[in-house]
Each structure stands twice: as structure tokens, then as C-alpha cells.
Amino acid sequence: MKKIILNLILVSAAAGCLFYGCGKYANGGDKYTDPIQIKGSDTIVNLIQAWSENFVEQHPTYNVSVTGGGSGTGFASLINKTCDIAMSSREIEGKEKSLAEKNNVKPVEFKVGLDGLAVLVNKNNPVDKLTIPQLRDIFMAKITNWKEVGGKDLKIVILSRESNSGTHMFFKELVLRNNDKNAKDEFSVHSLMMSSSQAIYDEVLQNPNALGYVGMGFVNDGVKALSVAVDDKSKRIYPNAENVLNGSYPISRPLYLYTNGESSGVIKMFIDYALSEEGQKIVLETDFVPIKKLP
Q: 74 Cβ partners below 8 Å, 6+ apart?
């Protein structure tokens, strides 16, 4: 008899979970819900984490889980409905849109900031500027020695993000392919594919021959960011917030959040916070560029 009663209790509990969503509250109420799952770009994971901490501090009944892995990982999670928000350093691709449609997912895009990709070298490297064509030739291994671009007689160690990274895709499309949709140029097979921007930073920090690209948020006194010119006749531009916002730095891009359909409830609250004046100040504090000038 006791066993029968226990089974009835368990069944009732399970039914209650189904009805109430196992802890979720309808209409985005101010009570505890399951954690917001945010996945994707390693480039902006520190920014999203900073937003999340402040958001939860202001709304302690909510919880936010932030996981990196690359923009491709974020879109895959959104398409598979295993995250609420995908964070990305590139626009969603056509093939991803098709997969989303097949899975009844409707990606909605929010531009939340701007980023300049900094080209990093070791701080003891005498080279302090390169042109876009020079970068293209280096990453395609047509230039292989630092002396060819004004440096020492040393082999260049090429560092790139892995192919599922939005940073990888953006750099390839802009620098290697010159924004030509028909181009097929790829990184040299001699490139060392790194799992994260932090991994590129760490390698450049200790390797005097290394060259890599990261979001500007990874630039500090431990490494050197190069000034970049469009070509030999153009002015070289240093990667900083002012130059990204005014459009003069040639390797810059928007940063995005994507949701499945129009956001509502706590998801909308988080997006609104990211786009608020306070949220955009955090964009600046984490070395990215707000989407508009702040007062």
C-alpha cells in the first residue's frame, strides 16, 4: 500500500512539473525560472558574462548560464533549441537559416556592439604595422619570414582561430578573400588552429615569432597590436574604440545576439539590458565599441 501511495506522489509531482514547466513561471514573471542559456562566440564571452553578472545582481531571482565554443556552436545550439540566446561575431549564414527553418526556429538578430580585430605580435617584435595585402600573404604562407615585412630573419608562426569561430570566418572573408563572395582562398595548411582567442594571446605572449588575430578586448601591455593599412598608399590605423566607431580601422565588425523568434519575458529583459545605456557602458568597459556614442 505504501508503495502504491509513493508511486502516486511521484506521478503527481511529474504532472506538476509538466504543467508548471519544472520551475518556470509564465509571462516572464519576477520569480525564479530555469537559467537563461547563452552560447556561442568566444570573442564576446567576457562581455556577455559581465552583462549576466550585473543582470542577475539586479534581478536575483533569475540565473544566466554563459558558454563559449565559437559562433558556429552558438547557432547550432539555437537551431537545436538547446540555448535561449546565441552570441555571435558574424551574421547567421544561409545554410544555418535553412537548418533553422527545417527545425521550426526563427532566428531574430540584435546588433549589440562593435569590435575591431587586432593583429597581435610579441612585444619584442620590431614590426609595428602591416597592410591588408601583407596580412593576406602571411596567412596564406606567401610571406613566410619576418624580414620580408621589415622584421628579423625569423620564420613567421601563423596563428588562427578554428573554423567554427566567427572570428575565423570574418578574418577569412575580409582579409584573405577581400570580401569577394566568389573567392575560395583559405588559411595556409601551416597555420596553427587555436581553440580560443585566449589561446592565441597566450601563444603570442611567449612566442617572439608568432602572429595572430583576436578581438580588441585581448589587447594589453603584454603583447603588441599592429597598426593596419588598407594598402601601401593608405594611412595606417591603430585598433581602438574611436577608430572602430568612426569606421577608419579596416578590420572591424558588428557583434550580435540571436534569439528564436521575437524575445519575451526574461529573454527580452536581458536583450533590453544589453542595449541599455548601462549595458553599452559595459561594452566600452570590456574594450569593445558601443553601437552608438554614450553621453
A: 39, 40, 41, 83, 86, 87, 88, 258
The answer to whether residues 108 and 121 belong to one domain is: no
Domain interval for residue 224:
115-252
Q: Grid coordinates standing for 91?
A: 551574421
State the residue for C-alpha cell 625569423: 154
**290 occurs within a structural domain:** no
User: pLDDT tens digit string along 190-232?
Assistant: 999 999 989 999 999 999 999 999 988 888 899 999 999 999 9
Whether residue 108 is found in the same domain as residue 225: no
10 Å CB burial of residue 185 (0-12, 13-18, 19+) is middle
* Tally of domains within the chain: 2
Output phi, psi for 86, to 5 deg.
-100, 130
- The DSSP call for residue 237 is B
Q: In sequence order, what E strands does the chain have?
A: 36-40, 64-67, 85-88, 107-122, 129-131, 157-161, 192-194, 210-215, 223-225, 227-229, 252-260
Residue 293 lies inside a defined structural domain of this protein: no
